[in-house]
Amino acid sequence: MTYHLTLEFPKEKYSIDKNSNQFTAKDQEGNRFIMTTDNKQKGKISFCKDDDNECKSKQHYTVKDPKICNKLSDIDSADYISVIMEGYGEKYFQERILGGLNKYNIDYIFVVDEGETQNVLLEIL
């Protein structure tokens, strides 16, 4: 299955750090989302808990076509990140990947290859 994921990181909720091949979003509880790119075609997303500036309990997932998108010219924020994930079974994707997004309170939309939206942005409680 192919999943198209769009992740949002509002600057009110996350501190953002970007360089040429890595994007990091960290919330006030120390939960970190990291996206690294080998090139414009491949990359990896990771979830971890910050423990004294070290990542603990890191989970990694391979992604295709990673993009950091800014609608505004504010380089210190990111409106959203877009990635494609392939080769993950539905149960694995639902339990592991979406479970990670939910655990770290990351807003997301995902679309399955048929083009049907399966989830909408989560509301922040």
Task: Write a concise keyword list for the protein shown above.
mainly beta, disordered C terminus, globular, 1 helix, single chain, nine-stranded antiparallel sheet
Describe the structure.
11% of the residues lie in helices and 54% in strands. The chain is mainly beta and 125 residues long. It has one domain (2-119). It has a 9-stranded antiparallel sheet with strand order 2-3-4-5-6-7-1-8-9, covered by helices on one side. A hairpin with a 2-residue loop joins strand 5 and strand 6. The longest helix has 14 residues, at 90-103.
Cα-to-Cα separation, first versus last residue: 31 Å
Q: Mean pLDDT, as a whole number? A: 77
Percent in strands? over 45%
Order of strands across the biggest sheet?
2-3-4-5-6-7-1-8-9
| N to C succession of SSEs | EEEEEEEHEE
Helix content: 10-25%
The number of helices is 1
Number of strands: 9
Number of domains: 1
| Radius of gyration from the alpha-carbon trace, in angstroms | 14 Å
Structural class: mainly beta
Low-confidence stretches: 115-125
